[in-house]
Amino acid sequence: MAEELATIAEVRSALAEAGYLADESASLVSFLAVRLGKPVLVEGPAGVGKTELAKALARATGRKLIRLQCYEGLDEAKALYEWNYRKQLLRIQVEASEAGWERVQEDIFSEDFLLTRPLLEAIAHPEPVVLLIDEIDKTDQEFEAMLLEVLSDFQVSIPELGVVEAKSRPLVLLTSNNSRELTEALKRRCLYLWLDYPDVERELEIVRLHSPELPEELARKLVEIVHMVRSLDLKKPPSIAESVDWARALLLLGADDIDRSVLERTMSIIVKHRSDLEVVADRVGVKLTDGLVGRQQAG
Questions:
Q1: Among 185, 189, 172, 182, which Cα is nearest to 33's?
Q2: What is the model's pTM?
Q3: Phi, psi (5° rounding) for residue 260?
Q4: Pseudo-torsion of CA 278, 282, 287, 288, nearest 10°?
Q5: What is the CA 296 to chain-centroid distance, rounded?
Q6: What is the pLDDT, as a whole number, of residue 297?
Q7: Can you give the three-state secondary structure of 58-94, one letter per residue?
Q8: Residue 29: partners with Cβ closer than 8 Å, 6 or more residues away
Q9: CB-based contact 168:128 (threshold 8 Å)
Q10: Are 144 and 152 in contact (CB under 8 A)?
Q11: Mean pLDDT, to the nearest integer, of 124-128?
Q12: For strand 191-194 and strand 114-116, is the pairing parallel, antiparallel, or unpaired?
């Protein structure tokens, strides 16, 4: 499938068919990742489409998506592999009395007793996959150091079994919300892509892609309001996915305009903190009441 994505334009078109409207930089980095087989570090604010890019690449290339969701305290056993201790213990109890310890020890440290986690699964998978390491900035530097072997040589060292080399090189995307600085060693091994919130025209295209039944004027007003909300000092600005959800909700409700009443009834779709709800209702609601939103476009 990678051979079919021979140009940046083809990558961009394949991503669009997969439901992801990539800009020039995202298309370029995706093309290089597919052709060079290098990991990609995708940074940017929460909700700009970093995870969706990995999902779209999996759809566009026809590959299985394997996801490792990172969190504080994530260790090797949850990311790479661990031994099935219960199964090992049962085998020891059944056979230790009849077979020698050396024979039992060799038996219980075999692939039959190995529990693969996302990183090892991606390396050992017989077909090419897309490996998403989501929110890598939530882990610590020790975890990053463990990743280096996987990202540099696409192999995993298991003391009891030896080195497991990749049967096919996975397409790796690491996402980060930029909550902490990642190590230079990790960055050196990756291509880099910064994603930010799109401008009004680009986000309007995204909303129209996922909700084509929404009238053009209503879709534009929705996007303008979302951008206005993002400009406020909120705990969590609305994501692109929430813009799409809001558009779908308005369609289901049969709304033909967004006035203050509609905003107050539906803004919990894009605003997820109580204090933020009050700020948006006050600041944006006033502008809707005064007819300031969409006036320039209408003119």
A1: 172
A2: 0.85
A3: -65, -40
A4: 60
A5: 36
A6: 46
A7: HHHHCCEEEEEECCCCCCHHHHCEEECHHHHHHHHHH
A8: 40, 191, 192, 193
A9: yes
A10: no
A11: 91
A12: unpaired
Is residue 139 predicted with pLDDT exceeding 90?
yes
User: What's the pLDDT band for 298 if we cut at 50, 70, 90?
Assistant: very low
Give the Cα separation of 150 and 190 in Å (integer). 12
Local confidence band at 31 (pLDDT 50, 70, 90 cut-offs)? very high
How far apart are the C-alpha atoms of 240 and 207, rounded to whole Å? 8
Q: Is 192 exposed, middle or buried (CB count within 10 Å of its CB: 0-12, 13-18, 19+)?
A: exposed
Distance CA 254, CA 132 (A): 37
- Number of Cβ within 10 Å of residue 229's Cβ equals 22
Tens digits of per-residue pLDDT, 168-192?
889 999 999 988 999 999 999 999 9
Please count the residues of the chain.
299
pLDDT band at 290 (very low <50, low <70, confident <90, very high): low
148 neighbors 185 (Cβ within 8 angstroms): yes
* CA dihedral (105, 107, 113, 118) positive or negative: positive
Are residues 162 and 121 in contact, defined by beta-carbon separation less than 8 angstroms? no
Mean pLDDT of the chain: 88
